[in-house]
Amino acid sequence: MKFTRLLARRTAPERQVIAALRGRLPARLAALPDAGSDFVALVDLAAQQGVHCFALQSPFVSDGEVELLALLGSAQRRALVGIRDDRKDAPERLLRCGLLLRDAGIWLPVAQAGTDKASSALSVPRPEQAGLARARALSLARSRQVASTGDFIGIGISRQYVSRLCKEGHLQRVRHGWYRAAPIAAEMRLHHHS
């Protein structure tokens, strides 16, 4: 087991959010209206998608909890910059919980280590945002040479969109959950034939 999967090794804000996901809201979060029901609904929705949280007493952090930390951190920043997604598949509950955390003064780190097993709740960017999302994803992949799904989630790029970038030839899958930018020559051929 990786040492980062020990609950005690997580930051204080991460431990507070994990406690909320497990059913024990920190006092400053519990003081906000509907916080309890929103977090219960988020955990239920995540469980329906195969993303699970450990029991309250567990000294470890589950893959699902790591995934939810990344998604909530991203949701906090999406709400902060005013990005609004009105499609019916938008993660409204996720954004609501991200706002509740922000209102309670609980800020999650920008980048989180994601997992390969849990499914992402963030949706594919709208067409008018796709160019910016693609640029961010390619910039990340080029700067790190090989980037994980969690790295992309940490900057607000869903695993569905990463898959789409692979199908379009912008990214190449190195192994399960790890990607690199396609060589520049391949991208030039893609744009030349478009």
Describe the structure using short key phrases:
Arc Repressor Mutant, subunit A; 3 strands; 2 domains; 194 residues; single chain; elongated; mainly alpha
Polypeptide structure, described:
The protein is mainly α and 194 residues long. The protein starts with 11 loop residues before the first helix and ends with a helix. Strands 1-3-2 form a three-stranded antiparallel β-sheet. The chain is built from nine helices and three strands; from the N terminus they run H-H-H-H-H-H-E-H-H-E-E-H. Helix content is 52%, strand content 6%. It comes from Sphingobium yanoikuyae (Sphingomonas yanoikuyae). Pfam families: AbiEi_4. This is AbiEi antitoxin N-terminal domain-containing protein.
TL;DR?
The protein has 9 helices and 3 strands.
Summarize the biggest pleated sheet.
3 strands, antiparallel
Rg on CA atoms, Å: 17 Å
Helix content: 40-55%
- How many domains, as an integer? 2
> Which class of secondary structure composition applies to the elements?
mainly alpha
Question: Shape, please?
Answer: elongated
Q: How many beta strands in the DSSP annotation?
A: 3
Strand content: 5-15%
Instruction: Report the uncertain regions.
Output: 83-90, 112-126
Q: What do the pLDDT scores average to? A: 78
Task: State the helix count.
Answer: 9
